[in-house]
Hints:
Elements: H1 2-24, H2 26-50, H3 57-78, H4 83-132, H5 137-147, H6 152-164, H7 169-179, H8 183-198, H9 202-251, H10 253-256, H11 258-261, H12 263-287
Amino acid sequence: MSFFLNDFVFTVSIGALTFIVIYFNVDKMMAFLQRKSLGNLEYVAQKLDLMFVDIDKKRLTYAMWALSLGLGFLFFLIFWPNYFVGIFFAIIFTLLGWQIPKYIVDYLYEKRCSKFVDQMVDSMTIMANGIKSGLSAPQAMERVVEHMQNPISQEFALVLSQTRLGVSLEEALNSLGTRLPKPDVQMFVVAVNILKETGGNMAETFSTITETIRERQKIQRKIEALTSQGIMQGVILTLVPFVLLCVFFFIDPNFIKPLFNTTLGLVFLFVMLMLQVIGGLVIRKLVKIEV
């Protein structure tokens, strides 16, 4: 009876505290949900547009809602007939499902930007040779479009298309730097714009940019080799609690049932998930070094 009373008092206290927090922060919470839903949709659509991916926004909206609600409904069914636990995890994974497309497009966008920078080594060589043979900067870029593959061919073709429509080369290159916010791309854009205004040896500048990119890539690969162990340790440390939870579930389900069918267990489970997320972000921050 005493245990039941204590559990009841604890549940009521948690409920009252939750109500107070939600009541005084409802505007902030609604703004947060708005930003994480429609804000993510706009973000994903913008990134896809920057990657030259033509997609219907209505279909994208349906796909993101289906992924989010589908993932939440799946976890609700997994914990059936425990409604409370099912709803708890359904909400968490519904919000997580809405974030997945953002991380996917971020990964693809970053990969595309890195590939563009890698292609700059060969493209700068082609442009330098073109300048030496008497071509202008736009004509040298046309040679890159003809001989190189995407994404650099797409980006340079867009720059040339903008100049044909009356946009100045400086503005078209600035747009290129905005679409691809990488230091090497910014260096190329600034160098071409300055040399067009002041004059100078553009072929030599392109050769210098090529050498700079090569040295930066060497340093980046060395850093990746040195931090790979830390990244793997972070992944292992993050996955160990979930693996142990699955092992105990299959060996002795009664051993971990209090985590899911008691209020205190759910609180501990939620705290564990939050600590795992914070720990993973801290480890990622430590091992991620920008060159």
